[in-house]
Amino acid sequence: MPPAPLVPDALRAVPFRGSDAIRSGVMTRRRLRGSTWRRLFPDVYVHRDVPVTHELRARAAVVLLPEAVVTGRSAAVLWDVGLADAGQPVEVTVPPRNHQVRVEGLVVRRAALHRDQVRRRREVLVTTPEATAVRLASVLPRDDAVAAVDQLVATGVVRLAAIRSLAAASRGPGSARARDVAGLADGLAESPQETRVRLLVGRSDLPPPVAQYRVHDQRGLVARVDFAWPEHRVALEYDGLWHGGREQFLRDRERLNRLREAGWQVVFVTAVDLHDPVRLISRIAAALAASAR
After folding, report:
1. At 236, which helix (H) or strand (E)?
2. What mean pLDDT comes out for the span 184-203?
3. What Cα–Cα distance (Å) separates residue 19 from each residue in 12, 25, 27, 83?
């Protein structure tokens, strides 16, 4: 019998149990200990050329715990919302009957998940987008939770109405918080920072703005702005407009000039502004007051 290849094709791109590979004859213990393979969890390995991402580690967690369902932030990652990076622990949920599991890099919950709230995605079991949103809404700090729900809705994998419906039906620890968060989400933000700006403005005495407002002039659409007070012709934009190459810079300048020609003021918000909300609210209030003169 010819010797097993150093890198079996079946193991080039996916996590696998080392003991299974040895038992089947495609791997030897000596080769497994070599530099070709990276250990992700006890007895779970991947080829060294495979980039280690949070999604890869979530898939490896399910190889280690076959009955596990990926939940929480880790489930959000599988639904294309980057709430966890490669170095953060993977959250999974196992049936209540399972023994307590303690593995470095894993957060293992024991809970009964309704089968209607579990789906297979990218070859692993994961909570549905609405169940993922409700879980996050029940455990994350409020603004973080609202931003997470908004991001899930923005991906198009779930409707806000479905999240609110599941939150309304939820009971137990965190359910009241989940309902509150679902009520605060609007699903319109294109970034977590836009959600944070909206919540900050909402906690102030300012009149509520219109999110993702389309400004038109005689030539047609001028721009879609993050937030607007149309009656005042004041727009609020989160910073990020001015980046890219020269062509993007010129397009951004043209966009801003057309907004101004249409009689609009634009207030820009940066990450620094979010740490000084009083000053930011004052700037917006000044812009609204100036438009009334």
Report:
1. strand 234-238
2. 94
3. 16, 10, 9, 32
